[in-house]
Design a protein that fits this description.
Layout: H1 3-15, E1 19-21, E2 30-32, H2 34-69, H3 73-77
Antiparallel strand pairs: 1-2
Length: about 80
Amino acid sequence: MSLQAISKHVKVLEDAGLVTRSREAQRRPVHLDSEVFSLLSKWIERYRRGAEERHQRLDALLDRMNEEQQPSRTEDAS
């Protein structure tokens, strides 16, 4: 990856507020903003839990529907 490509990627991260840059003589260190990542992780976790609960409800509904569609063994014996 070229230095120019890396600079563009870092600029996007900086514009998004995920990293900050500083200047130290000829160096331009990039620092991750851990607070932003912590908030982002909490947000993702909240929505992951909600999605997981919806999937569990869907699984339970599909199981009930499958049970209702399968003929019972007593009906087969008649």
